[in-house]
Amino acid sequence: MPLLPERKISFYIIGPSSSGKTTLCEALSKRLGIHDGAFVREVARTVMKEKGYSRDTIGSLQMQKDIMEAHFVQESSLDNSGFKIRVCDRSAIDAVVYAILTANSVKVGEERQQALTESPGFQEALNRYSDQRSIVLLLKPVPGWLVDDGVRSLEEQDQCLRVFKKLLADLKLFYFEVGEEMKFIEERINFAMGLAKL
């Protein structure tokens, strides 16, 4: 069991489909001995199941709003917790990216981005992501990793990555990138821990 840091540290693992987000989150949590209550797992599938959404409705702005709201609830629950290290599989940012990516025009995409990111809930989440105690890792697509499981959107991963990067730039949010240059899970764990000085 590693020594706990003196300050709270939050990891936010984001990126396109099948880039290794959940794998990294689970492995990092296991390595660090993260309490299950300090691990925010992917909420999109749960929201889709509860509200009757499917891959065919991924373009629905309401679906992305619902997913974003679910993230707010999960992330906010950690704010007053005593857990020193928290790991989040995705973030509210992911929902905004998919709202932009599935818009039928650039103008609509810009309107969706503005509507979602200017909401009080997102601004509160953005403060968490911008905190110096937070580490945002953007995982890039790795050729050969995309698998169709009937739930994920098989969107153009490179385009999705571009939307992520543009949104992060618009939000002035500092982040680190991990891609095919670092495929092995041990490398990714050590990189994340190194960023957190663990």
Automatic annotation (TrEMBL):
Domain NadR/Ttd14 AAA: 11-177
SUPFAM superfamilies cross-referenced by the UniProt entry: P-loop containing nucleoside triphosphate hydrolases
Organism domain of life: Eukaryota
Gene3D superfamilies: P-loop containing nucleotide triphosphate hydrolases
Pfam families in alphabetical order: AAA_28
Protein name, per record: AAA domain-containing protein
Organism of derivation: Crepidotus variabilis
